[in-house]
Amino acid sequence: MRRVWLALPAFFGAAFIAAAIAVPLILIPQLKVVPLDLDITSDATTVPEDGSGERFPAQVFDRCSISESKAQVLDAHLTQQRRSIIVDPSDRDQATLQSAQTVQIDRLRYPDGTETEPKMAPAGTPRTCKDGLLSANIDRVSVDRKTAVPNGNVSSLQLEAAPQGVNPADVSVELPGRQGFQYKFGFDVQKRSYLVYDTNVRLDVPAEFVAEKTIDGVKTYEFVAEIPETDVSNLPNPQGEAPLGSILTMPASWWGISGPGVRPNDSVTMHRYATATKHMWVEPETGIIVDGMEDQYQYFRSPDQSDATPQPVRDFEMTVLKGRFKWADSTVSGQASRADENVGLLKLASFWLPLILGVIGVALLGLWGFLFWRSRRSGSDDTPPADTTEGDEPIEPETGYGAAADDQSTSPWDRPTEQIPRVQDSPGDTPTQNFSPPGQDGPTQEFRRPPSE
Predict the structure, then answer these.
(1) Cβ-contact 152, 175 below 8 angstroms
(2) Bridge-partner residues for 208, per DSSP?
(3) How far apart are CA 68 and CA 70, in angstroms?
(4) Among 37, 152, 155, 424, which is most exposed with the fewest C-beta within 10 angstroms?
(5) Is the pLDDT of residue 24 over 90?
């Protein structure tokens, strides 16, 4: 039993060291995956590009002006809301993200200085040109859980509300060939270029690393993506046609175009274009986007830039939407906290936990070695040597009477000294000595010394 107890520190020490090696190999792959319980709500509002306190930092096209004599562009404050969750199909290998996004008009200011706060009509009711909802869509994309790269199984954009009983796929467009990150980067982000996806123009574009920045105590890499000018009318709706509002034909006077070769009543057709500059601050270990900012610009201009088109028409642009959308502080704080928590888990699994287990394992092995050494030394001290000496003379083992009694040897020289007959050398005497073996009474033997010659 003692040997078993001595072996326990060695067993557990080896087990802890094995666990220190195995923990990173087992836990890290489980932590470095897109979580299946992801549920993120983010808000972004328009902010002044010059950092001033302007209450109307954005511009939007007045949709009601289509029925008026001249187009109007109004000052506005806008909010972009997005909620991203995991939906089916999702499993151990892939995660399907569904992200519903809206752009709302918080307040408007008309040229005469009048301000208003548009309201949104309840879902399922008709919307008018004065509605506070500017745009809405639902993006669905399946990604590889280890790389966060789209795998092509699900990739669609829902542009219209699906009435009850209508399959959302019937009001969605497929987005084939999608490759870029969008709601999250992959793990172990490097200081290089990555592809990101933009739903407004439905394109993968490169995002370039530009700088490092610490946000709420979290180290991030800033990436900037330039979204190229894209004709939105070339992005078909679910019916295969140009999206509503992407092509508009109105008189030149309505557009406010005048000049050589242009008459007020000339019909002028404009297409809607979109471009943007995206800034993303990404925590490099987890790929979580901690902060974001996007300069959006959508506008009407002529698709025909040839010499056959009058110069005033070629040069004309009218804003549909213009604004810098900056993530709200609450969103940034939540994302930074989420990133910090995930970084902590990765460090615990890759460094601290193996270190603690390894130190305990080494300590237990050291304890076993000490106990083993002590046991060996203790056993050596308890065993007397075969021959011991006192001074220079050897000490002979003592033999007791009882030992001789047990020995039935018939030779008197094999018996103890006191049992050996003594011979007297006195002349004239007849030396005799009686010897009684142990256990017998009376003399049984007589030894006589022969007379001297």
Answers:
(1) no
(2) 224
(3) 6
(4) 37
(5) no
Contact 212, 328 (CB under 8 A): no
Strands (DSSP E) found in 328-426: 389-390, 393-394
| Mean pLDDT, the chain, integer | 84
Q: Which residues contact 335 (CB under 8 A, 6 or more apart)?
A: 40, 42, 288, 289, 290, 291, 327
- In this prediction, residues 142-151 reach a mean pLDDT of 96
> What's the rounded Cα separation, in Å, for the pair 222 and 10?
50
**For residue 418, which phi and psi values (nearest 5 degrees)?**
-70, -15
Q: Does residue 137 share a domain with residue 78?
A: yes
**What band does 51 get if pLDDT is binned at 50, 70 and 90?**
confident
pTM of the model: 0.76
Q: Which of 411, 388, 414, 387 is nearest to 403 (CA)?
A: 414
> Is residue 105 classed exposed, middle or buried when 0-12, 13-18 and 19+ CB atoms within 10 A define those classes?
buried
Q: Among positive and negative, which fits the CA dihedral 285, 286, 291, 292? A: positive
Q: Match 């992801």 to its residue by tokens.
A: 38
Q: Do 26 and 38 fall within a single domain?
A: no
Taking a C-beta distance cutoff of 8 angstroms, is the pair 389, 423 a contact? no
The answer to whether residues 211 and 320 belong to one domain is yes
Same domain (yes/no): 276, 296: yes
| Dist. CA 238–CA 162, nearest whole Å | 12
Relative to beta strand 73-87, strand 39-47 is antiparallel
pLDDT of 452 above 50: no
Q: Amino acid letter at 170?
A: D
